[in-house]
């Protein structure tokens, strides 16, 4: 199903998106060396419930997972990249942590992910992975707008990642979002420009470039959920929910302190 949101629904999507962005920003500020992944899950649950929102994950039970996810946020560390199920692990200095969060308010969902390094260490490989996914996400947002096609977004994502030296896995990618978390159209992380669904105002997309340092092959963890690099290499994942507008694309999942910051103009 491809869903086109009404102006009222789009206003609700902004509320959901801002909440997702604020929760992720709060978690990034709070995480320290020694923070347990289960603590992060607990903090997330509290913030979702305090906001009167609904988790998109806790009861999520798709065909590719093993039963309900049963947690409130995805926490992927180092070689884990997608669907990282929180478990009893204390973060170490230099760990590469990805937090992926989706919540719904008023019946409209938003989805976002951030990758960052814990503590003071800054391994060059991890920095480069994160920056590549962020560049790919920015590039896709820049070409999104009415009349563009899904293949245009996929093409710039894949080109950006491959130019950075990474191979691209096409099993999981971006997706439509709205009254449910995962909808059509699928947004692959590589593709041919000028192909696929033509974007229309009111369409919401969750764009999510992700890469692994030296492979494009995934393996499934024993928990039945967490997807890891087949070689044990490090990974990164960046995601925003965007709304297609009459004249471009609006990023909905920025933290409110960023979304509401005054613009700066050069003289």
Automatic annotation (TrEMBL):
Substrate binds at residues 83, 182. Pfam families: Peptidase_M24. Gene3D superfamilies: Creatinase/methionine aminopeptidase superfamily (3.90.230.10). A divalent metal cation 1 binds at residues 100, 111, 239. It is an enzyme of class 3 (hydrolase). Binds 2 divalent metal cations per subunit. Has a high-affinity and a low affinity metal-binding site. The true nature of the physiological cofactor is under debate. The enzyme is active with cobalt, zinc, manganese or divalent iron ions. Most likely, methionine aminopeptidases function as mononuclear Fe(2+)-metalloproteases under physiological conditions, and the catalytically relevant metal-binding site has been assigned to the histidine-containing high-affinity site. Residues 13-246 form the Peptidase M24 domain. Monomer. Belongs to the peptidase M24A family. Methionine aminopeptidase type 1 subfamily. This is Methionine aminopeptidase. It comes from Microbacterium jejuense. The gene is map.
């Amino acid at each position: 199903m491809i869903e086109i949101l009404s102006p009222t629904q789009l206003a609700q999507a902004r509320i959901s998106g801002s909440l997702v962005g604020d929760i992720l920003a709060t978690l990034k500020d709070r995480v320290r060396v020694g923070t347990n992944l289960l603590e992060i899950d607990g903090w997330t649950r509290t913030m979702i419930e305090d906001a009167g929102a609904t988790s998109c994950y806790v009861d999520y039970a798709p065909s590719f997972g093993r039963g309900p996810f049963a947690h409130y946020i995805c926490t992927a560390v180092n070689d884990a990249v997608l669907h990282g199920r929180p478990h009893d692990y204390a973060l170490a200095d230099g760990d590469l942590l990805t937090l992926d969060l989706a919540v719904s308010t008023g019946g409209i969902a938003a989805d976002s992910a951030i990758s960052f390094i814990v503590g003071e260490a800054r391994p060059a490989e991890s920095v480069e992975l994160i920056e590549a996914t962020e560049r790919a996400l920015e590039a896709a947002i820049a070409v999104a707008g009415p009349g563009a096609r899904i293949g245009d977004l996929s093409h710039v994502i894949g080109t950006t990642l491959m130019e950075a030296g990474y191979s691209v896995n096409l099993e999981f990618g971006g997706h439509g979002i709205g009254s449910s978390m995962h909808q059509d159209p699928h947004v692959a992380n590589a593709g041919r420009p000028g192909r696929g669904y033509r974007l229309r105002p009111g369409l919401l997309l969750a764009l999510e470039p992700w890469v692994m340092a030296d492979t494009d092959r995934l393996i499934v963890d024993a928990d039945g959920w967490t997807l890891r690099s087949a070689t044990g290499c490090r990974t990164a994942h960046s995601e925003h929910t965007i709304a297609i507008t009459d004249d471009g694309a609006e990023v909905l999942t920025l933290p409110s302190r960023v979304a509401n910051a005054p613009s700066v103009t050069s003289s």
